[in-house]
Design a protein that fits this description.
The protein is α/β, with parallel strands linked by helices and about 525 residues long. It has 11 helices and 24 strands. The strands form 5 sheets. Strands 1, 2, 3, 5, 10, 13, 14 and 16 form an 8-stranded antiparallel sheet that branches.
Length: about 525
Amino acid sequence: MKAHRIVLVMLVLTITSFTSAKNCSECHKLHLTGDDLSGWRGDTGQWQIVGDAHLNDGNPKLLAGTPGAGAMLNGPTGRTKHLLSKQEFGDVRAHLEFKVAKDSNSGVYFMGRYEIQVFDSWKKESPYPGIECGGIYQRWDNQRDPKGFEGHSPRVNASREPGQWQTFDVIFRAPRFDTSGKKIANARFEKVVHNGVIVHEDIELTGPTRAGAFNDERPTGPLMLQGDHGPVAYRNIWLAPADANPLFAMDYGIQDEKHKTARAQVEALDELGYAGISVGLGRGPALPEMLAELDRRELRLFTVYTGVNIDPGEPPYDDKLIEAINAMEGRNVMLWLFGLSKQHKPSSPAGDERAVEIIRKLAKVAAQHKVRIALYPHNNFWLERVEDAVRIARKVNRPNVGVTFNLCHWLKVNPEVSAESLVKLAGDRLFAVSVNGADVGGSDWKTLIQLLDQGTFDVKGFLKTLGRAGYTGPIGLQTYGIGGDAYDNLKRSMTAWEQHSRVLYGDVSPFGEPTKQ
C-alpha cells in the first residue's frame, strides 16, 4: 500500500513539474544566433558568422567582422537577403542585440510582417513617425494621401552612436482569428524596450507594416531580419513564449500603512510580478511621481480612473483631468471613465446625447496625446452595464474610445447575460478587463470582490472566454474594500493568477522541449 502511495506521489510531482515547465517562458528560450546560420531558412545570401563587428576603419558607413562566432553580419556591403527564421511564432517575448554603421538602416519584423525599425538615429531628428530606431514602422497604401500611415515614433530617442551594440526587449502579441479564419483581434506590441528604456506600450497594428515578407495576416510567422538596407550586425537573439495578458493592480489594492509612497507601491508590485498599476485621478501619490517610479522599474501606468457628470449645470469632469492627460503623453494610458447623473436613471438612453458630446471632446484632447478612453460600467452609476458602454462608444465613434468589462459589476448588475455574449458585443472596442475572486450568486461587495484564490466563480473559465474572443489586452485586479495586508493580498492573488492564467498562454511547440531551470 505504501509503495502505491509513493508511486502516486511521484506521478503527481512529475505531472506538476511538466505543467509548470510547459508554461515557463524562461524554460523555452530558443536562440537564433550562435555558431552557424542553421536557425534561418533557405538562401542566407552574404550573411556571415563573426565574433564581433566594428566600424570599418576607412569608412564609418560600413561594418567589418572579426573572426569567431556568436554574431551575424550582413556581408561586406550591407546589401544582401533578408533572414527568415525556420520556426514560426505567434505571441513571443524576444531579446535582440544589434549594431549599425553610420546612417545605416535595418529592421526586425515579427511574424515577417510587423517591423521595429533598426536605424542610425544617434542625435538625429525624425523625418516621419516610425523611421526612428525603435520606431514601429508605418503601413503603406498607394491610394492614400499621404501613402504612409500608422507609424509610431518611440517615446524617447534611446539610440546609441553607430558602432555600439544596442538592445531591444519586446513582448509581441499575434493577431487572433476565429474558427472561420476571420481576424477578431489585431496584432500588438505590448512592450518595446530600447537600451533599457521603454519606448512603446500597447501599440495595436491594423495590418502589416511596409516592406514585410508577407501582406496577409496569419496566426504565426517567422522572425525576419532586414538585410538589404545597410550594414548591420546582430547577436544574442532569443525568443520565448509570451506569458499571459499583463496583470496590473488597482492602486487601492496596494495602499496601506506600509505602502503610502509611489516608490513603496511600485517596488512591491515589481517584487510580486505585476505589470503595473491603475490609479485614481487625484488619489494617492502625484501622477508625475508615480510615472517616474514606474519608469524606473520598467512598469506601466495602465489606467487612470475618473468620471464624467452628464447633468447640465454640473462640471463635466475633474479640472485636473486635462493636466493629467498631458502628463500621460505617448504612454498609451487609458482613462477609465465612469458616467454619473442625478437627472437620469442608470442605463437610461436619455442621457446619451450629453454624454456623447462630453466624451467626444475628451477623446479629441486624449488622441492628441495618444491616450485612450475605456468607458467603465459601474453598478448604480448612469453608465452601469457593458451594454451601455458599448452603446455610447459606438455613438461617440472615435478610434480611441472603447469599453471595459468589469467582472464584479457584471456579477452585481446582470449576471444573467453571459460574459461571452458581452465580450462578443464589445468586440474590438474591448480595451480593458478587471477580474477578482467572487461567489456565484453573491449580492454584496464582500462576496463579489474577493482575492483571486477565493470564491466559487470560475475565473479560469472566464479567462478562457477572453482567450476565445481574441482578447490580448491588459487585465486589472479588482481589490476594492478587501482590507487587510496589501502585500499579502496581492501575493495570494498573483499565486492564483499564475494558475488561472495558464489558459491564456500561447503555443509553446515552436520552442522545443523545455530546459531545466
